[in-house]
Amino acid sequence: MSTPGVKVLDKALLILSRFFEKDELSIKELEECTRLNRSTIYRILQVFSKWDFLSQDPATKRYKLSIKLLEMSGSVLRKISFLDVCRPYLLNLRDATGESAFLSLLDGENIVVADWEPSYYNAQINVTVGKTVHAFCSGAGRAILAHLPREELDTLMRNLHIPKYTENTIVDASILMKMLEDTAEKGYAVSRGEYDTHIVVVGAPIFDFRHRVIASCSIAALEDRVKDTGQIERFGGLVKEAAR
Asked: Is 187 helix (H, G, I), strand (E, B) or coil?
């Protein structure tokens, strides 16, 4: 059984965790989302404020995370390599599908391949670290684009220029926007021969702790090895789980 001290700590961490979802919270809002009583919440908030983990706006009386916590998180992030964290998931994705798995970052209107694990098949796809691909032409890129802040996406759309790489390349902005909406709804994006002929890419977005999109992880397969929509959906489920 939990000791009283541990129960209090559970409640305190429950409250603190809510600030990773909302920038600011009032005591009333914390009551609603934690189901804890007001006096307990108030006491815990006072302790977090004393230790400078939270700060309170004197005008609105709402609480938010303090700079101290950001400094602590920065210290942790400096000790963790993003690619090192991602690599086991890329390996698992490659092993589960037999296909190439890769990690992409957005750079303007392009994506850059940051890491990859090659397919087990003899006929492999030329995915290499550092390769750039137009983001709108790839499932890996659209997985990121679909979750950008609207202003950022609108800027990209206004300046949109997509070369006709293949006969499948989609250059119509209205069609692309509909595809991005579908991607946001499904949680993964699919492209078929839009940048490289006969290559299917299925990608899902990777978010940071504030739910901002920062990258995507994807599977790339030769079209001949993708038999039906059921296989696409299976790939979609796998990349979503790896990204999560």
From this structure: coil
pLDDT tens-place string over residues 221-242: 998 888 889 999 999 999 999 9
Placement of tokens 């796809």 in the chain: 125
144 closest CA partner among 213, 219, 240 = 213
What angle is formed at CA 109 by the lines to CA 73 and CA 156, rounded to 5 degrees? 95
- The residues, ordered by sequence, that sit 6+ positions from 34 with a Cβ below 8 Å of its Cβ are 11, 14, 15, 18, 41
Q: Which helix (H) or strand (E) is 101 found in, with range?
A: strand 100-107
Rounded CA-CA distance 98/123 in Å is: 12
- SS3 for 161? coil
Q: In this structure, are strands 54-56 and 63-65 parallel, antiparallel, or unpaired? A: antiparallel
Q: Which tops the pLDDT comparison, 77 or 68?
A: 68
Which amino acid, one-letter code, is at 51?
Answer: W
How far apart, in whole angstroms, are the C-alpha atoms of residue 217 and residue 139?
Answer: 10
Strand partners for 203 = 189, 218
List the domains of the chain with CATH numbers.
4-78 (1.10.10.10), 82-243 (3.30.450.40)
d(CA 26, CA 7): 22
232 CB neighbour count, 10 Å cutoff: 19
pTM of the model: 0.68
